[in-house]
Amino acid sequence: MDQAVVGLLTENIISILSNEASLLWGARDAIENIKDELISMRSFLADADRKGVGSEGERTWVANVRDMAYDVEDIIGNFMYHMNRQRIGGRSSWILHHTIYFPRNLWMRHQTATKIQKINGKIKGAIPERNQRYGIDRIEGTSSKDNQKWVVRHAESSLFFKEDELVGIEKKRQLIMDWLMDGEPHLTVISIVGMGGSGKTTLAANIYNNEDVKKPFDCCAWITISQAYELEEILRSLIKEFHESRKETNPADLNSMNYRLLVKTLVNYLEKKRYLLVLDDVWDTNLLDEIKVSLRDSCFGSRIILTTRKEDDVACHQMGGKHHIHKMELLLTEEAWELFCKKAFSSSPNGNCPPELKSFAQELVGKCDGLPLAIVALGSVMYSKNMSEWNEIYNSLNWSLSKNPKLEAVKSILLLSFNDLPYQLKHCFLYCSLFPEDHEIRRKRLIKLWMAKGFVEQDKRSMPEEVAESYLLELIFRSMLQVVERNEFGRPKRCKMHDILRELALSISEREKIGVVHVGREEMTDCEARRISIHKTDGEVKSFTSMSKLRSFLVFNKMLKTLPFRSKMLRVLDLEDAPIDDLPDEVFKLFNLRYLNLRGTLVKELPKSVGRLQNLQTLDIRDTKLEVLPCEIGELQNLRHLILHQFTRNWNDFKFVIGPRTPSNICRLKNLQAVSYLEIKGDLLKQIRSMTQLTSIGLTNVKAADEVDLCDSIHNMKLMRSLCILVTNAEETLRMDALSSPPTNLQKLLLSGKLEKVPLWFHSLQSLTALFLYWSRLEEDLLPQIAALPHLRRLELINAYVGKQLCFSTGFLQLTRLRIRNFPQLNEIIIEKGVMPNLKSLEIISCMQLNTVPKGIEYLQNLQELLLESVSMELQNRIEGEGSVDFPKVQHIPNIYIY
User: Fold this and answer.
1) CA separation (Å) from 781 to 649, 697, 734, 795, 846?
2) Do 706 and 685 form a contact (C-beta atoms < 8 A)?
3) Cα distance between residue 307 and residue 409, in whole Å
4) Where in 102-218 does DSSP place strands (E)?
5) What residues pair up with 322 in beta bridges, in sequence order?
6) 418 Cβ partners below 8 Å, 6+ apart?
7) Residues 6+ apart with CB under 8 A from 21
8) Contact criterion met (CB below 8 Å) for 601 and 575
9) Does residue 837 contact residue 814 with C-beta atoms inside 8 Å?
C-alpha cells in the first residue's frame, strides 16, 4: 500500500510542476529533485510490495519512506496555498502582492526550498545509511509468499470437506453438473466467479469429488493457481494429476523437461482423451492464453472449470468451444444461520443454538452478510465460548482481523484481492470505506470524489469521468464492490462494500494514516489521517480542529453543527444532509478545495467569496434553500459539475423540479461538463450557445418564444448526452421544430411541456436509451415515431397523449422499463405479439378510465414487475386472486403491486 501512497503523491507533484510553473520559481529545483527521489522511492516500494514485507525492520523502513512522501506533500501543499492566496482578489490584491507580500513570498520560497532540501538530504543520506546499518536490503520478504502458499493449501483443503459440512450449494451444483454433462462434443469452459470467500472453490470441489461426474471422463486434474505461478510447474502438475487419475506412472524425466517438452507431452497425452480439468483461483488471462496451447479441443466433450474473482476478463476469457459463467451469490439468511450453527454449535444437542445465545448469534451472523468464509471463521471463533465471552464479542461487533488468529483466514484470502489491485484502484477502494456500513454509494458521487482526490489518471483519449467510471467497473468486476442498483443503461447506479471488505479497508487506511471513521466512541485529538468521516457525534467537532493535514472531511451524521477549518489543504468537503444553514468564511479560503457537497443542507445562500475556490471541480447544492447564485460563480474556471435543482417530489404537479436563478456569466465556465437545472432568464439561453463542451444540461422556465435560441444552442452542443427541458407552466407550448438535427450521442431526453406535434427529429435519436415526455398532451399517436429507436431501454409518459387507446404494434426491441402515468382518457392498452420482448417493468399510474389489463400482456414473458397505482377498482378486481378474470394473463409475472 505504501507504493500506492508514494505513487499517487508523485503523480500529484508532477501535475503541480506542469500546471503551476509560474508560481514555482525559487523552489522549482528543489521540487524537481524531490520528484526524482519520489520516483526512485516508488520503484523501491514496488519491489517491496512484490516480495512481501515480513519483518518488523522492513515495515519500519517502508513506513519511513511513506512518511517522507507525506511530508513532501504537506510542504508543497502549504507553499501552493500561500502563493495562490494573492492570485485571487482583483487589482487591490495585485498591488498588495507586489508591495507588502513580495518580500514575504521570497521568504516563503526560500523556506520551502530549504525544507524540501532537508527531506532530500534525509532520503539520500539518513535512510540509505539506516538501510545499510540494519541490513534491510539483505532481508528477503517472505510474508507474501508464505501467505500465497497458505491460501493455496487452504483452497485445496476444500477437496476434503464432507457433504454434511456444506450449505446452500444444491441448486448451484445441479446447474454446473448440467453444463458438464449436456452432451456437447466441443470443449466447454465453465467459469465460477465471485468475491474471495464466497464458496467458489468449495462448490467446484464438491462437484469434482462426485464419482458420477468423473465417470464419463478418461482423466481428471485439479490445479490451484497462486498469483505468483510458474508455468512449467503448472504443466508438470497437470501431467502428474492426469496420470495419477488413471493410476499411471508419471514420465520418468518429468522434472527435467523444459517448456517445449512439457507442452508436447501434455498435447500427446490428451490427444484422444476426454478430460475434466479444474483451474482454481485464476488471477489473469495470461495463464489461460499460455495453457490453452496444451488443452486443444479434441471434440470428445472435455470440460474445464475455472474459479476466479475477476469477472471482466478471466471469467469471460475465450478458450475455444462453449462458455458458461456462474456468478456466486452470497448465502441467504437461513442458509447463513444453518452454516454458522454447524460450526459454532456442533457439540450441542442436534447442533442447535442455545436459546439464551440466539439473539447474540443472529446479529453476529448478520455481520457476515452471507459470506461463507466469514461465517465459518466466526463459527470457529465462537465454538465452545461461555456466556461472558459471547457478551464480549457481541459488544464489539467489528471484525478485528489483525487481533484474532482464527479470523486470519478471512484476512489472508481477502488481502489477495486487495494486493492484486493497481495502485490507483487501491486508493479508490480504500476511499469507499469512509461511507457507513451498508451505505448505498451513488456512482456519480463516488466518481466526483475520486477525481477531487487526484486518484484518476489523465488520459488524452478519455474524459476523467470516463476513466473514473472504468475504475468503478474494475472494482465491481473484481468483486470488491457490490452493485445494488443499475440504471436503464445497465450501468451501476448504486453500489456498496461488503461489511468485511470494509473492515479490511478501514484497518489498512488507519495503519497507513490514510483515513479514519469517527463513530462517536473515541476522541481524535492528534489524528494524522488525511481523511476523516463523521458517522456519529453530538454535534460538536472541537477535537478535530488540530488536524492540519486533513484532505477529506465527510459527514454522515444529521446532528453535526460545527466544522473544522484549520486544514488549509482540504480538497473534499462533503456535508450532504447535515443540518448546516450557514457556511463560515473559512470555507471559501480553502484554495485547494475540489469538491463541495451541500446537498440536502439548509444553506440559503452562497457568498461572493465563492469565487475564491479556483480549483473547485464539483459544486452540489441540490435540495438546498438556495434561490439565487452569485455572479462570482462565473469565476470558477475549473468547475466541471454544477448540480443546482430541487425535486418537489409531486409528480402530479407540473412543476416537479425547480432551480435557483443563475447569472448569465456561467457561460464563461469552459470546463463545465454537466449542469442541472438552469432557470432561463434574460439572455441566458443565447449566452449558453458557446458552451459547446457540455455533456449534460437541464433547463427550466423555457417559453415558446425561445424556440430559435434554444434549438441553436442545442445544435452547437455536439457532445451532449443528456438533455432536459421544462417550460414555464402547464399551458406553455414547447417548440423545438427549428432543431434540424439533435446531438448524435444523445442518450437521455426529457421534455416537459405541451407539444403541438411529435418533433420531426425524433426518428434520428439513434443513440437514445431513455425518453421522458411529461404533459406533452399530444393529439397524434407518438408510438409509431419512436418504436424503431434501436437502443431505447426506458420510456416514461406522463400525461403525454390525449387519446383513448395506446397500441404498441411494432418495435421497442430493447425496452426494459415502461411507465404510463396520468392519462385521464386512456381506456385501452394493446400490446401486439413480439413487441417489447425484453420489457421487465411496467407501471400504470393514475389512469382511472382503464378497466382491463393491457391486451397482450401475456406475451411479455420477461416481465418481472407490474405496478398499478390509482387505477379503477374494476381493473384491480380483474387480476386480484386466482379466480379473477384476467389473472391467467398476469400469473407469469413474479411481482405484482397494487396501490
Assistant:
1) 28, 28, 17, 15, 20
2) yes
3) 18
4) 188-193
5) 188
6) 426, 429, 480, 504, 505, 508
7) 28
8) yes
9) no
CB neighbour list of residue 247: distance below 8 Å, 6 or more residues apart:
none
Amino acid making up residue 189:
V
852-874 confidence digits (pLDDT tens): 999 999 999 999 999 999 999 99
Domain limits of the chain? Answer: 2-141, 146-327, 333-411, 426-511, 803-899
What's at 740, amino acid-wise? S
Interatomic CA distance for residues 717 and 333, integer angstroms: 50
Report the topology of domain 146-327: Rossmann fold (3.40.50)
What CA–CA distance (Å, rounded) separates 876 from 756?
A: 34
Q: How confident is the model at residue 676 (pLDDT cuts 50, 70, 90)?
A: confident
Q: pLDDT band at residue 242, thresholds of 50, 70 and 90?
A: very high
How many Å is the Cα radius of gyration of the chain? 31
CA distance 298 to 275: 10
Segments in 741-824 forming alpha helices (H): 783-786
Assign domain 426-511 to its CATH architecture. Answer: Orthogonal Bundle (1.10)
In 3-state terms, what secondary structure has residue 592?
coil
Q: 787 near 762, Cβ under 8 Å?
A: no
Residues 6+ away with beta carbon under 8 Å from 384: 347
| CB-CB contact of 633 with 611 (8 Å) | yes
CB-based contacts of 569, cutoff 8 Å, min separation 6: 74, 77, 78, 81, 548, 549, 550, 551, 592
Q: Are 283 and 289 in contact (CB under 8 A)?
A: no
Q: What values do phi and psi take at 411, rounded to 5?
A: -60, -45
**What grid cell was written down for 354?**
442455545
Q: Cell for 410? A: 478471512
- Residue 585 near residue 565, CB atoms below 8 Å: no
Q: CA distances (Å), 698 to each of 604, 606, 677, in order?
A: 22, 21, 4
Rounded CA gap, 484 and 496, in Å? 7
Please write the tens of the pLDDT for every residue from 324-361.
999 998 888 888 888 888 888 877 777 788 888 888 78
